[in-house]
Design brief:
2 domains; 4-stranded mixed sheet; transaminase activity; Aspartate Aminotransferase, domain 2; alpha/beta; pyridoxal phosphate
C-alpha cells in the first residue's frame, strides 16, 4: 500500500484546485513521483493485463513502454498537430473494441506539441469512463 503523500501538501493542492473551480477533499488527493507514476497508478486502477487502451498517435514513447509493462494493448488513434486526435477514428475504435481507458494529452501533446481543443476533449470524454489530465489536476468521471 502506498502513502497518498504528505498531508499538508495534499491540503494545499486541494486549495489550489478549489481556486481553479474543482472542489476536492484533501483525502482524495494523491501525490505522485511525476506524470509517469500518476499514469501508471491510473492505468492500474482502470485496466487489467490484456485490456485495450487508446492513445493518440504519435504518442509519448514512455506510454508504450508502460503499457507493455502492464500487459496492455494500445490502439493508436491518428492525431494531427492542427486538429488533435481524430474523433472519427476514436469512435470507430470504440465501436469495434472494448477500450478501457483513453490516454490523451490535453495541454501540449508529446511529441507533436499540439494542444487538444476543448471541444475534442469533451467529445472524447462523452463515450466512456475517462481520466482527464489538465496540468496538475486529474479528475475521474463516470459516464
Amino acid at each position: 500500500m502506498f502513502s497518498p503523500g504528505f498531508e499538508p501538501l495534499r491540503r494545499q493542492v486541494a486549495i489550489r484546485m478549489r481556486d481553479a473551480g474543482v472542489v476536492v477533499d484533501p483525502s482524495e488527493v494523491v501525490i505522485t513521483h511525476g506524470c509517469v507514476d500518476a499514469l501508471q497508478m491510473s492505468l492500474r486502477v482502470l485496466t487489467r493485463p490484456g485490456d485495450l487502451i487508446a492513445a493518440e498517435s504519435p504518442t509519448y514513447y514512455g506510454l508504450l513502454q508502460l503499457a507493455d509493462l502492464l500487459g496492455l494493448k494500445v490502439i493508436e488513434i491518428p492525431s494531427d498537430p492542427a486538429t488533435g486526435m481524430s474523433l472519427e477514428a476514436l469512435q470507430l475504435a470504440a465501436n469495434q473494441w472494448s477500450i478501457k481507458a483513453l490516454v490523451l494529452t490535453t495541454r501540449l501533446s508529446n511529441p507533436l506539441g499540439a494542444p487538444c481543443q476543448r471541444s475534442g476533449r469533451n467529445s472524447c470524454c462523452a463515450w466512456r469512463r475517462t481520466l482527464i489530465s489538465r496540468s496538475s489536476k486529474m479528475i475521474f468521471t463516470a459516464s
